[in-house]
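Reviewers asked in the last cycle whether our approach scales beyond single polypeptides. To address this, we selected a multi-component target totalling 568 residues and predicted its structure end to end. The input consisted of the following lines:
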Amino acid sequence: MILASRSDLPLDKDEHSRFLPWLIAFMVFLSILAVAGMLVLNATASRWDAGVRGTLTVQVVPSADAADDEARLNEVLTVLATSPEIAKYDAMDEARLIRLLEPWVGAAAGSADLPLPRLIDVELKPATDLTAAGLRKRLDVRVKGVTIDDHRVWLDRLVRMIETFEALALVVLLFIVLATIGTVVFTTRTGLAIHRDAIEVLHLIGAQDNYIARQFAGRALGLGVKGGILGLCLAAPTLWGLAHLAQSLDERLLPDIGFGPVHWALLLALPISVALIAMSTAKITVLRNLAQML
Amino acid sequence: MITEFDEPIVRFENVGLRYGLGPEVLQDVSFSLDPGAFHFLIGESGAGKSSLLKLIYLALRPTRGLISLFGKDIATTPREQLPALRRRVGVVFQEFKLLNHLSAFDNVALPLRVAGVKRKDVNRHVAELLAWVGLKDHMKARPPTLSGGQQQRVAIARAVISRPRLLLADEPTGNVDDTMGYRLIHLFEELNKLGTTVIIATHNQQLVERLGYTQLRLDDGQFSVIPGRKQKAPPSEGRAQTAVETGKSTNSAADSRIDTEDTFRNPPNVENFL
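The resulting structure, written as structure tokens, was:
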């Protein structure tokens, strides 16, 4: 409705505001990329976290005696089987271990000279209080030469890194908002200076400050919506290209990250938010300036 | 009981005005205007006439002294209440101050639009008034395409469209020939008969002498009153308070403007003056 309202000021003829939609378009473009990046990082961290949360890897360190290794493995499996906190466990066979090692050590992975530990993937029941240290204590009583990895150390580092990137994206978003506000304030002040005489007339015939501010706010909203749509049109193919690129990568490096309706809604809300920020900024700027008039 | 209509429309008490650190352009100005008064404000160029008018239409604040408008002390009236006071004052600016990007119609409609009057009523009143001032065929024309006299009439129509209780005109005859000047003054007299208090700033001494109204004289910032030979009759009784005056934008706004409508529909021979 505010877009359709008539204006007593020739704001649509202002040369200085013609660049505003393009500036807003770039802001929207950057903010969509920043938020999309944040969402991707967040989804990646969540998936990694969900993937290793409640899982442990028990390692039976190899010794010179293969029979002893087998006996220790069986002893470990017995302890795991009798632990009520454990949902399931899976002892990796040698062939799978060799497959996992091959990318790192090549053909040497299958060599008899390379001692291979026996690994057991353990999945804990949800909401259990059994920790890696607790399980180690329980195993140490029955069998020696067993280590437990709960993946937390490397995952925590990764999550910290991702959180840093997310914070950085948030800072970028904040700068974008500040830049948008600054641009709209500058444009509005220029408009106020250009139309000073007309504003004075409106003022003297009894126009409330809000009446004048609404005209600037309506204009800023119109330009903001225009810029928002432009920015969205720029960002959509960029996001599609990045998604396409990500899909072509090895999924072990980058897990499949699909945006849900909430994510898309969030991205679509950005141009609308920027337009509303432009409108509010223009209105506040005009009201503050007019408050200095009699 | 003293009502709003019994109070002076404008009251100045020891008002002084200076711009920045310069000398006082107005010194100890004191006067009071009753409802329905008709006064000339005279003085040489630079005597302070425009400054005095600016103080009345609230474009300036005095350096000292007290100004009250419609019984309200300007110094203590909250800023948000000033627009409602301004809507009760019609101003014909010396340089017209028409908005060049708007048509004559839209310029005249401005006071009604800012007061929130419905579009249907705005269209009707503005069309009637423009026809009344002889600009029926120039409603869509923009001010730069109009002659000085036509612009003057648009400015006057804008000043009176909301039926102000106080009409201020700054050198309204300065840009037109003598014949047109007298016609405009007669228009103001007709409005005055309908209850509007009128102050006309002019340096046309011949015009002032000929009409004989009370003169408010400014001489180098010093104020004096020279009684006129014409005695003003009290303003029309039962004058309705319009929505524009109260600053409200209600549905009853148009209803309460019936007197205005009737005035413009049956102008008392005013068309002849233009």
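The mean pLDDT of chain A is 85. We regard this as preliminary and will revisit it once experimental data from Aim 1 are available.
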